[in-house]
Amino acid sequence: MEKKQPIGIIGAMGVEVRALIDQMEESGQDRFAGLVFHWGSLAGVPCVIAQCGEGKVNAAVCAQTMILKYAPRLVINVGVAGGVGVSIGGLVVASACVQHDFDATPMGYPLGNLFLYWDEGEPEERVELPADGAAAAVLLEEAQSIYGGACSGVIATGDQFVADKEKNRWLGETFGAKAVEMEGGSIAQVCYMNRVPFAVLRAISDNANDESPADFPAFTQECADKTARLLTRALGRL
Ligand code: SAH
Description:
Layout: E1 7-11, H1 14-23, E2 25-32, E3 35-42, E4 45-51, H2 56-70, E5 74-83, E6 91-99, E7 114-116, E8 124-126, E9 129-130, H3 133-147, E10 151-157, H4 165-175, E11 177-181, H5 184-194, E12 198-206, H6 212-234
Parallel strand pairs: 1-4, 1-5, 5-12, 6-10, 10-11
Antiparallel strand pairs: 2-3, 3-4, 5-11, 6-9, 6-12, 7-8
Helix pairs in contact: 1-6, 2-5, 3-6
S-adenosyl-L-homocysteine binds near residues 162, 181, 205 and 212.
């Protein structure tokens, strides 16, 4: 892929992208659908960065707009997530994403089974959408060198803040998830449909249990800073 094409970076909340935008040598901004797209260069690499807002629809609007307007060669979703067997402060790099709330099970489909239409044909059916292996490997290596490691695994996405230990356990059992959040699987689907490679990097802000309403605000800033620093370091190799 042509290296002149930018890397797209999406975070749901301001805290997840602010440090990246502040460090960027910004060449310009555009506004679409109420979202602001900052473009320029970060760590010497052409990038476009946007805050999408929480949840799957916000994330999808942002990712599709970014792809159509800027033709990114890779889209990376950064931010925080609830841990599924990974402790607060830990890092998770997606091997694949799933949408845990996509449910056509009464019709006999597995939970999370997506329907992806190509050229008006019969849909491709998929639960997991695979992240770009090369980008994930770079993020894991950088995490190893700066923070002593990161976990690679499935990230589960849904329009739900998970703060329940039973649901947490279920996410691990059902999808093999290591983290739960509200955007990655949606960005993954948009990228998959457009044949654009994607990566998801999350730091664990809470344990997706009954302590999450207190832990999330306490740890989000620190965790978001961690992913921003790692991503800035990794960009030159992506
Ligand atoms: N901005 C609001 C709402 C945050 S929703 C606030 O600060 O109160 C939680 C955000 O962090 C989402 O973007 C989601 O991707 C991520 N997240 C962190 N912990 C999560 C959890 N336990 N369950 C789901 N999403 C979580």
